[in-house]
């Protein structure tokens, strides 16, 4: 497959609203459309095809898969068409590739159907905001919307550290410095340490993956910066556990106390097909760091009670559980009942809520 053919496949995908494109030897290219994988009208990939695609994406005509001893992440763009986040890997002696489509336009909270309370959350001047969800649930898009809001409303210096850079930002009210791991800095850890010397107001870290990054995020939040990052967890409670579990056992109690002190909010996402079947809709769980929330996190033995805190804090703080939001989306006619129920954290309780609404 040559560059022109690859560009045609990617351009067609963007025109059809796909989120990802998969290339695997022995299979036709596949598009992910509204959560489902669909095969393209193209011949099954040969080892030479995927190797050729990798050469185009690496922009190195002489590149060979034998040079790759680990997975590689990079960004790619087609001028006037779109940007892409690329993951290239070896599998069973051949090259596999997954390409995530990144829209040129960064959409607002309203355009993404995200709760308005996110404006208040990113209006904070300091603290740690964690955006969570499984792969493909909209974390990067939500973080980009947060940065867009800051860019439109604050005279601030925003430093982003990403692997790779996804959404591109022009300066608005804010000055935005975007750094890429691998080309602009050696690691998230190095980029974060350097960012603290660059007079930042807001630091965005693409993802918290390990202890060193988690530690530096805490330090940055503790020293008066607003830190925004993503983490791969499925809900609020698992986020607190996942974050603290990155630390060694003897340091976890201390990490939990520090997290309780500097946390601003946790925003968890699940993308669902809407009632018409033509678009995806986010269900959102939101925890804000009230005095009670901080105490429960600090203690560690009452994390299970955070669900009740979110449920009861909806009117006053804009918090909500997944099931509360799913019920709202169903009642407003935006979701089918079976979709909402299958996505609920507690399907039986959700069904009772529908029955007695």
Quickly list its features.
Beta-Lactamase; Rossmann fold; 24% strand; alpha/beta
Short précis:
The protein is α/β, with parallel strands linked by helices and 357 residues long. It is 37% helix and 24% strand.
Describe this structure in words.
With 357 residues, this protein is an alpha/beta fold. It has 2 domains: 3-102, Beta-Lactamase, CATH 3.30.450.90; 117-320, P-loop containing nucleotide triphosphate hydrolases (Rossmann fold). The chain is 37% helix and 24% strand. Strands 9-8-10-11-7-12-13 form a 7-stranded mixed β-sheet, sandwiched between helices. Strands 3-2-1-6-5-4 form a 6-stranded antiparallel β-sheet. Helix 8 packs antiparallel against helix 9 (291-299). The protein is globular and about 60 Å long.
Walk me through the topology.
Blueprint: H1 3-15, E1 20-23, E2 30-33, E3 36-39, H2 47-58, E4 72-78, E5 82-91, E6 94-102, H3 117-122, E7 127-132, H4 139-153, E8 157-162, E9 175-180, H5 188-195, E10 202-205, H6 211-222, E11 226-231, H7 236-245, H8 252-262, E12 263-273, E13 280-288, H9 291-299, H10 306-312, H11 314-317, H12 322-331, H13 337-343, H14 347-355
Parallel strand pairs: 7-11, 7-12, 8-9, 8-10, 10-11
Antiparallel strand pairs: 1-2, 1-6, 2-3, 4-5, 5-6, 12-13
Helix pairs in contact: 5-6, 6-8, 7-8, 8-9, 12-13
């Amino acid at each position: 497959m040559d560059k022109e053919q690859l560009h045609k496949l990617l351009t067609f995908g963007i025109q059809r609203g796909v989120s990802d494109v998969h290339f695997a030897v022995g299979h036709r290219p596949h598009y992910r459309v509204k959560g489902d994988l669909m095969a393209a009208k193209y011949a099954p990939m040969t080892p030479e095809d995927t190797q050729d695609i990798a050469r185009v994406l690496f922009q190195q005509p002489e590149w060979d898969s034998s040079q790759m001893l680990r997975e590689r992440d990079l960004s790619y763009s087609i001028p006037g068409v779109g940007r892409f986040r690329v993951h290239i890997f070896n599998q069973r002696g051949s090259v596999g590739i997954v390409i995530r489509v990144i829209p040129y336009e960064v959409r607002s909270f309203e355009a993404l159907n995200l709760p308005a309370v996110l404006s208040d959350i990113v209006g904070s001047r300091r603290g740690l905001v964690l955006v969570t969800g499984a792969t493909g649930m909209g974390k990067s898009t939500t973080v980009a919307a947060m940065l867009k809001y800051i860019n439109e409303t604050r005279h601030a210096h925003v430093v982003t550290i990403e692997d790779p850079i996804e959404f591109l930002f022009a300066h608005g009210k804010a000055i935005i410095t975007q750094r890429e791991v691998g080309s602009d800095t050696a690691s998230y850890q190095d980029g974060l340490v350097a960012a603290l010397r660059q007079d930042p107001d807001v630091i965005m870290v693409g993802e918290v993956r390990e202890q060193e990054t988690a530690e530096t995020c805490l330090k940055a939040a503790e020293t008066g910066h607003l830190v925004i990052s993503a983490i791969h967890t499925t809900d609020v409670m698992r986020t607190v556990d996942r974050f603290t579990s990155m630390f060694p056992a003897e340091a976890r109690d201390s990490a939990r106390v520090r997290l309780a002190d500097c946390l601003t909010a946790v925003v968890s996402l699940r993308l669902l097909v809407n009632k018409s079947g033509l678009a995806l809709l986010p269900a959102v769980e939101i925890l804000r760091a009230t005095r009670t929330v901080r105490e429960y996190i600090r203690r560690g033995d009452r994390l299970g009670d955070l669900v009740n805190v979110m449920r009861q804090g909806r009117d006053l703080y804009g918090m909500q559980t997944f099931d509360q939001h799913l019920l709202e989306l169903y009642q407003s006619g935006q979701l089918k009942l079976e979709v909402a129920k299958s996505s609920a954290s507690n399907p039986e309780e959700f069904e009772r809520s529908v029955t007695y609404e």
